[in-house]
Request: fold
Amino acid sequence: MKRLPLLTSLGVLALTTTFGVVPAQAAPSDVVGHTYVDDNTTGVNTIAAFDRHADGSLTPLAGSPFAIGGEGSGNGLASQGAIQASADGRYLVAVDAGSSELSVLRIHHDGTPTLVGRPVASGGVRPVSVTISSKGLVYVANVGVGGSNYTGFRLHDDGSLTAVPKSTVPVPEGSGVGDVFFNATADRLVGTRDNTSLIDSFTVRANGRLVAAPGSPFAAQSLGPIGAEFRPTNPAQLFVSNAHAGPGNGTVSAFNVDRAGVLSAVGPAYPNGQTAPCWVEISHDGRFLFAVNTASATISSFQINPDGSLVLLGNTSFRIGQGAVDARLSPDGSTLSVTGGSGHVVSTFSVEGGALTELATSPVALPAGGAPTGLVVL
Reply:
């Protein structure tokens, strides 16, 4: 390998590999899990896969990136959740935005993902976000002209994916759905319409079909709702990032969602003084919310009060964070990883309550080409 000079932007020595420029590091600690990124590659789409070590560091899995059968778009999807894992951690479902398909991959004991069967048509055009319930119900948000909708599927024990009959719910073209997401009990589902600043809310029937809540879609509290997540410890509390109110005007909204799916705001949108908060992730204990500010290259930390109101704790900068496109906590909640779209990297932070500290080994490079989006941390 060719040795490069010191990178002042990272403050660490870097080496070139097949993955590009990555920080040099000491021998990694034991492998405790894996991390996956949808590369959204033009032509045959791929997934970048990493071993995740006990110290939080990431190293490329042998054979990565892995072809997943469908085609990526090669440009940004402006969405959260382009790749998701099943509740049991056995399968990945990834969007193939270029071919309007979904790919299912089986995760083997060493973390290697392999395609199950062939990619499945997404039920629309240009899928950008997918969500999987604990019961194996899958919904995808399609945003393309001639096929903008939400469509449901069943993920079976063998990894096959079949469409739920009559599950498709049309969405007006140009809405720009940014995220589709189940709550923990899988009886409510929301979708954010970035371009028109609306939030779709549904209840979920036993047969997998959706019923629009009375009054849905609901007006967002600010421009550009994109990232959405229900509180893990309270399936009736929803949090949505608002990205497009302009420089320094980013906010996060909190809503109560009743049994019929009706949204009611907890209070006014909560400001963070940053620009373009696009992606949200909530700690597994439901106490803290992290909002990734794509244009500011920062992460805002909020405390979540029992009633769902938010208190801003502070903002943490990245080493390379411009264009960040999604965020996920590790299963034990000790680290937060973020994909950087324009930087083609994954950045990882240690988590202590609501405090974030970027690891010395962060960031790690993603494969060249494509437009990486979405990640899964197992």
The radius of gyration is 19 Å. The CA atoms of residues 203 and 304 lie 24 Å apart.
